[in-house]
Amino acid sequence: MRYLTITGTLSDPDTLHLSPGFRIDRLPDLPPALGEEAPDALVVQSLDAEERIIGCEAVPTAPLCAYGSGSPAPRFAAGVIETVEGTRALRFLFQNRQVHLFTVPDGEPSIRLRWEPEGGNEQAGVQLISWEGHHPGRTDLSYIALYSTDGHDWIPLCLPQWEPGTAADFDALPGGSQCRIRVMATDGMHTALADSPLFPVLRKGLIPTILYPDDEAPLPADALVTLVGQAVALENPGGFSSDLHWTSSRDGALGTGRTVEVILSAGDHVLTLTTRDGTREAFVTVTLEPNPCSAATPGDEEAIEDGGRP
Question: Considering the entire predicted model, what is its pTM?
Answer without folding.
Answer: 0.77
